[in-house]
Amino acid sequence: MSEAASANAPKPSSSVKLVLLGEAAVGKSSLVLRFVNNDFQENKEPTIGAAFLTQKCSLPTRTIKFEIWDTAGQERFASLAPMYYRNAQAALVVYDVTKPSSLTKAKHWVAELQRQASPGIVIALVGNKLDLTNDGGDVSEAAGAAQDESESAQNGEEGAGEEDEVQDAVSGDARKVSTREATGYAEEEGLLFFETSAKTGTNVVDVFTAIANAIPESSLKTGRGTGAGTGQTSLGNRSAEDSRVNLGDRNAATAKEGCAC
Amino acid sequence: MIPWSSFVQKAQSLIDPANFNIPALSSPDHNPSKASLFRQQFRLPDSQNPLQEITADLVLPLPNSSANQGDGSRKVDRAGNTYTGRLHLSERFICFSTQPTSFIPSATASTSTAWTGQTHGTGPSGNGFVLPLSCIRRVERLHSASHVFSLALTTWNGLLNKQQEPNLVPQRLILQLVGSRQACERFCDTLKKGLREGMKEVDNLRTVVTDCYSEYLLSGAKGKGQDGNESDTRQPPDAGLGLIFRYPGDARKLRDRSKMRLWGEYFRENGRNATLIRQPTFHKLIRVGLPNRLRGEIWELTSGSLFLRLQSPMLYQQTLSKFDGQESLAIDEIEKDLNRSLPEYPGFQSEEGIGRLRRVLTAYSWIDPEIGYCQAMNIVVAALLIYMSEAQAFFLLSALCDRLLPGYYSTTMYGTLLDQKVFESLVEKTMPVLWDHLTKSDVQLSVVSLPWFLSLYINSMPLVFAFRVLDVFFLEGPKVLFQVGLAILRVNGEELLETQDDGSFISVLKSYFSRLDESAHPRSENPKLRAITRFQELMVVAFKEFSGITHSTITETREKHKGAVLENIETFAKRTSIRNLGPESKRLSVDDLGTIYDRFYETLYQWEQRQRVIEEETRRQERKRSQRLSMLAPPADTQVGRVGLGPSPTHMDYEAFREFLAATSKWAVADSPGPSGKEPSSGKSALWANRRQPANHEFMQRLYRKWATNPEEGLNLQNVVNGLARLKGSPDIMNNINYFFDLYDDSGNGQVDREGILKISEALLFLSRRGFEGTITATPSVENLNSTADRDHAENSLTTDEKFLGSVSAFIRRCFEYADPSHPENRKADQQDATAEATEKLDSFAIGDDDEEEDLIDVDDTKPASSPAPDATAQTAKSATPESNSDDHNRSTSESANPALDPNNPLHITLPTFRMVVLADELLEQFFESYFPQSFHLSDHPHPAALAASSSMSSNLTTFSNLGSIRSSGLAAGSAPVAGASGGIVPPGKGLRGVLDNIVSDGIRMAAEVKKRMDEAQRDLERNALSREEDEDEEDDEDYPRRENTAAAIPGGIPSWGAGAYGADTERRSIVRDADRDLLEGAEVLGGGKEERTSLLDGKDDANHAPRKVSGSAASAKDDGSPTARDGEVISKLVEFES
């Protein structure tokens, strides 16, 4: 990591085009709304074509300005999607943890992106509506669990999934897609993986931060610094109550970074 | 089946064969029909057709003078405005427009829509009227000095109310026809007829009109003088949610009251709703914005949806009650969005508003299932519902989807994408600098503009302004959306030139929209100028600066981009669906999948088209009957089936599947009308060049049932891909054999019974009847090495097809030999015979091979390919002649050999047996290894499996090439399939080929015959059971072999072959024998029973016993040496499939 080398240079800011894809009503727009406004609306107008929003995400080493394209989820809008994921550097493929078909659709989107989108696109698989499951009840705990899971996704462990199934068996919550299944898939395809709740805010910011960290420096449009660490481990420190990205990073923002390489 | 195929034939006869892909139906892109242009111009329902047209002057009474004019035939001199234009008559409407029209038969989109260009926004119909004939109360002929025909029309205007309006002057307009007497009379005759019909619809008119706020407005006006909203005792008609939840915007600021007053005046002078006459004020009144309570009604009128409602006023309610309680995908989707449609409007926070929205969207999804529900429709309908009743919104939505926004909400949204392309190209044309900037900074315009079009600016601009755009849009059509869009960019041009990315581009526009109500010139000294809002400025720019954007501009630009857009969508759809086909599909190459995809949908498309033609035909016969539903259904001249255009059928039934197979495999093409004419030159292009009548064979049905997850529903792409993937996806011969066996394992218990075996053999003949395309090579290599030169010669002169016939008959025999009896005791008898038969087989080898070659050549030279097949009995008799000798011979030695044939002893073969039998025969082995999978032609690129297969038979190919050279010298016609040529079908005109086709098809017929005889024999058997108990075995024995042999004897059955019949037949038999040898040894090794099949049908054969015996022994003499030579090979094969 190169943060140590950073001096007083202003943090480089770069914009990242991010596209949200997924079945209708899985909560794409709500995720964005939570991320951008830290807000939640029960009745969000369906997205026509796509909605465009921006939000900054401040990392220790740089600031990422997300240009978020929130696409319509209805099946027939799929043919419009290429218009939106064109040149996207990151994608959030969202499914609903209470709806197995939405994961299938998510897989289709991942396949589509892998073939058609710009090479090197960072894809995060996000299971939303965690609040409808048992582990969504307690925010911090759930966040912790999801965190573990996302790590296990990276490490190839499968501990979290078992725990899940035990819970399901006990209380029969609305969860229909096990964490393990999604983790396994994400691992196979090399995706970032999170389970979130746009309603409670669980993990929402973490998703975007993880993406911000995963964007390779080389693909940043206006990035001046080159040596910024892209390690995803820095995520681990971010706690669940960091519901606002700018807030959470205020401390980090003081630590300046420089060009190490 | 039969009615279907006759339907299909009928359909084909209706279709011009020259351009099959373009159905006989008129398509909208090229030369729209005169009728559709006419409907477009006057916004008439699809049921209307132009019947008469004539030049005429429309004379409108002066408002003031009209009051004292009363009725009677007054002089027309005192009339007010006079317009000259064209008068049109359709079944139910009389229309007048000052705009020139050109409904000449050769009219194209550009010429016939050019008039809208000239109007520059004054509306599609110019000044004039569109009157339903039911509105006309009376027509009088006036005596006019200047015109031969001068008609005075009195309408029902204002008279349909229950309450009499005071001071109501009957609306009266005068039409002076200009034209020859005949033309005028013709016009009047048609008008008379129409009027008579129209009288029946006055009740409809009454129903429709009472929902119009204008009626209420005018009738209420009596009491209060002005707009008496609450003054009347009568409840006002439903003018939308706005009546309950207030209309958006500040009514005072919108000057709603004075607008209302102006409209009231206009109505009084020019008629209201259905009887309204368009004069220039009409367009002006619309431009300044409609008053809230009249907005819905005017939208309905200008969009033409009023006429739809008039046509079937109760359709909305009927649809709702008809489908009450039913569920659909669309309904689920609608439910999801109900709470999020204009949620900021109070009406949609209430159950009342949401309920209305739900009902309208649901009803529409039922009457137009192809569209169902598309997000954005919720927003549009929500907006409509603020100003109009549910029924009005329902019909207006229909007009939107069908005519104003064609293809916008379809499942592929091609209309949306197309109009984005059109918009982009208009921007490029009108604002090149901005366009360059956008291109350079990589801003994709459509990303921004798409929601503008899709939701008609409703969720882009503040509602009040969006509704102003809609006011004009409904009058002037889709071009308004483009004009406004261009104006938005123009007004913000400078700021937009400074943006560098999507984000800033969008935010510039966002802030612009939020400030539309502000002054456009806030700093201007001129207070008038200062009063102009940004929105007004926008409208001026849109309709002045971009007045050049006309309907024809849009139509032409759409035409230009349509192909590319559809192609894009189709590529996307194809890519996506191929990718989503699941793991099974990975066994096929991407090219193959693409080919399957294309062919699948092409088949469905063509199938659909033909069915439409049939439907059209039926509809023509019983027209009018289903008028109500067809009225709202998408216009008949939309192209269906093309994937890019929207929902296409996803499942093919068996009939369509046959067509698919016919396009995939040669064997699936029907034999009629004669094999030589059907021979395609080569390859895929030929397969598609002319449609082929698909065959209908039991095998195809089995394939269909095997592939379908639900045969009732049909096959979807996934089923077809999975089916083909299993067949072609692995180079493993075992896989193919297993698959084939499975097809016939009806009970699913791993057994195929006697019937099944025969069916398999039929299928083998069926599949092979068009030759092997070089995938199978009969290699007599072993024989070449091991047997006498004579026999070599004979073998070489046979074609693969002929040999394959032998293989199939051997297959049947072996199957029965090795079949497991369902009763164990039969087994013993089998075994006893094994040895006896073994010797016998050898004896009967290569019967009469001496003269074969010559005979074949003979045939080739002298007989035309299309020699008609004789009837089955004749064949049997003939073929029996040469055969019977060996039958007899065999009978003597294998008398008790055949319990397998005894229907009382059911038997079956298992998969291992089947495999063994297949592998025992070189040709069958090749059949399953290469021909069968390869006979399904997919992409032109050979896929890995096929390559593997062909390499595995490289040795065969080598010998084949040797053989080929021999043959080319021997048989000048070169009828042999050429190895390696994919789809290398032997070209027509080669005599032997045609003969072979006959042979093979005869073979199939004979197989059926055999089966029939088998059944007969069984009946005989049962009859004789008591009296001939002792002989039974013997008789059985004879029965079956006879059958088998008949099948084998087919070639000889063609009388025209003359001497050749004998030769070919015996030749073939010799292969049978030859191939049998393998098995024979195998049989010995296994100790299994074996029987010689001979043809012993009945006593008729007796006469031939002697000669046959002779040739049989002759053959045996020659074949002595060969069996042992193959021992080793056969054993190893047997070991292989035993393990």
Q: Can you describe what's shown?
A:
The complex is a heterodimer of chains A (261) and B (1139). Chain A has nine helices and six strands. With 261 residues, chain A is an alpha/beta fold. Chain A has a domain of 171 residues: Rossmann fold, CATH 3.40.50.300. In chain A, a hairpin with a 4-residue loop joins strand 2 and strand 3. Chain A is globular, with a radius of gyration of 17 Å. Chain A starts with 12 loop residues before the first strand and ends in a 7-residue tail after the last helix. The N terminus and C terminus of chain A are likely disordered. Chain B is 59% helix and 5% strand. Chain B contains 53 helices and eleven strands. An eight-stranded antiparallel beta sheet of chain B has the order 5-6-7-1-2-3-4-8. A three-stranded antiparallel beta sheet of chain B has the order 9-11-10. The C terminus of chain B is likely disordered. Chains A and B meet through strand 2, helix 2 and helix 3 of A and helix 15, helix 21, helix 25 and helix 28 of B. Chain B: It comes from Penicillium rubens (strain ATCC 28089 / DSM 1075 / NRRL 1951 / Wisconsin 54-1255). Chain B: This is Pc22g14970 protein. Chain B: One of its GO terms (molecular function) is GTPase activator activity.
